[in-house]
Design a protein that fits this description.
Keywords: Coiled coil. The structure is a single chain. The protein has one domain. Helices cover about 90% and strands about 0% of the residues. The protein is mostly helical and about 90 residues long.
Length: about 90
């Protein structure tokens, strides 16, 4: 029974990370749109470029977390199958 709870928990975490990735992608697009606006100062451009860099870094970290969660989920499913198959 703990495996089912663990699987559901991992699936929930995975969905949360997917949502976070989508939010960061939206923020990146918003920053890119601001960067393309005419009349923006160099100081503001530098700030926005740094913000974009940080958002991309956050997105990559979330993708890595997603990969790890997928691996954990795969391992839990295999473990659950073994337990069910041997019982």
């Amino acid at each position: 029974m703990a495996s089912i709870t663990s699987l559901a928990s991992l699936e929930g975490e995975l969905m949360g990370v997917d949502t976070s990735i989508k939010k960061v992608e939206i923020q990146i697009v918003e920053v890119e749109e601001k960067l393309s606006e005419p009349g923006i100062s160099e100081e503001e451009k530098d700030y926005l470029r740094e913000e974009k860099r940080q958002l991309r870094k956050e997105k990559e970290q979330l993708r890595e977390e997603k990969r790890q969660l997928r691996e954990q989920l795969r391992e839990e499913k295999l473990r659950a199958e073994r337990l069910t198959g041997s019982g």
